[in-house]
Amino acid sequence: MSFYDEIGANKRKSYLLIFFFFGVVVCLGLLLGLLYGNSYGGLLVAAIVGVVYFLFSYYAGSSAILAMSRAKEATKPEYTQLINAVESLAIAAGLPMPKVYVIDDSALNAFATGRDPKHASITVTTGLLQKMNKLELEGVLAHEMSHIKNFDIRVMMLAAVMVGLTVLLSDFILRSFLWGGKGGNREHNQLSIIFIVLGLVLAILAPLVGELIKLAISRKREFLADASGAMLTRYPQGLADALQKIKGDPDPLVDTANKATAHLFISTPFRKKKGTSFLQNLFSTHPPLEERIRKLKGM
What we know:
- By secondary structure, this protein is an alpha+beta fold.
- The protein contains ten helices and four strands.
- It has a four-stranded mixed β-sheet, sandwiched between helices.
- The longest helix has about 45 residues, at about 190-235.
């Protein structure tokens, strides 16, 4: 497979996973309707909640993320070098100039957000600016620019929206079941009872499965952004050295980061836990830094 084939394959897989989320939401909507004696009503509620949730996230999600992260827009002359570096990479990538933000935090990290290249931004921490040399900073910025160019920012936003929606609907369904609902469906034939039991299992597992899939999408796209960023700068070693410094960061915690925004960062913004277990790897938003560094050095 060529590099461009890999990009196409990753995009197709990601969109298939997004469609899977929509399927889960439809099933949860049907179950909601069954509990209240009206399947179409359940679908309608799921659709309305989904549309409102999606529209807010699509048009205001990035602004909410920046506000949550306490990011401030970078201005000249204080951040002239940073802004010029982003502008040069945007020209090289054939993209509009994204907005540039800075978080006052000693951790070494960065992220990109937005709904498309015309409405995108790149945010870096002050710690990253202080510790990275010119080539390393360009490597990190190229990685984030690649997330914008590859439309990762949109796909990850959609995945996050769908996960949030499944959690919302699942919680409502489980509470409705415990409260008894309005319909008499639970007194129907054995097929209806089996369907309700299966539906409740789905309602319990849907948020977990959805979260795992969102994390899987994030991990795949980190590798792709590393490779795309290296192609953009024509110097893979720059990003590899930057990731090595990030790996050695004694305090990687970004104070304003949370579970909703963690997958956006170039590296996990939480403190490292001693040892790695299967479950820790399963719920990790990022692939191991060692593996990413190894792949970059092999380019």
